[in-house]
Amino acid sequence: MAKPEHEFFPVEKVEYTICPGDDPKIKERILAKDPDSGVATRILRYEPGADSTPNGVQIHDFWEEVYILEGSFTDLTLGETFTAGMYACRPPGMPHGPWRSEEGVTTFEVRYRV
């Protein structure tokens, strides 16, 4: 199967849900998801003070592209802070995170398999 077909719609109609890891300060708005592979297009939001350290370093078996819409967060492994307007393209197997955001951050993410 593939991600579903959607014509333009207000994304506010899609509720935020708590991400895996159960931190209520880290939420996602799934815009489209392939139920078979689990890959998705989403908006990710870290509220101020959110910290994904309990989830550890992330390594995926899919491609992930991330654009920071607003705010900033810090990759605690790299010791680098990334801000609005920055972009990442991560191939399968690329380690990243964990993350902490002092001010909060919102990202737009696309995940896919080749």
Give structural notes.
With 114 residues, this protein is mostly beta strands. The chain is 0% helix and 45% strand. It is built from no helices and 9 strands. Strands 1, 2, 3, 4, 5, 6, 7, 8 and 9 form a 9-stranded antiparallel β-sheet that branches. The radius of gyration is 14 Å and the shape is globular. 13% of the residues are buried. The model has no long low-confidence stretch (mean pLDDT 95).
List the helices and strands and how they pair.
Layout: E1 17-18, E2 26-33, E3 40-46, E4 50-51, E5 63-75, E6 80-83, E7 87-90, E8 99-101, E9 105-112
Antiparallel strand pairs: 1-2, 2-3, 3-9, 4-8, 5-6, 5-7, 5-8, 5-9
What is the helix tally? 0
Give the integer mean of the pLDDT values. Answer: 95
Query: How much of the polypeptide forms β-strand, as a percent range?
Result: 35-45%
Q: What is the N-to-C order of secondary-structure elements (H for helix, E for strand)?
A: EEEEEEEEE
- Dominant shape: globular
Low-confidence parts: none
Radius of gyration: 14 Å
The number of E-state strands comes to 9
Largest sheet entry? 9 strands, antiparallel
Distance between the ends = 14 Å
Global structural class = mainly beta
Measured as a percent range, the helix fraction is under 10%
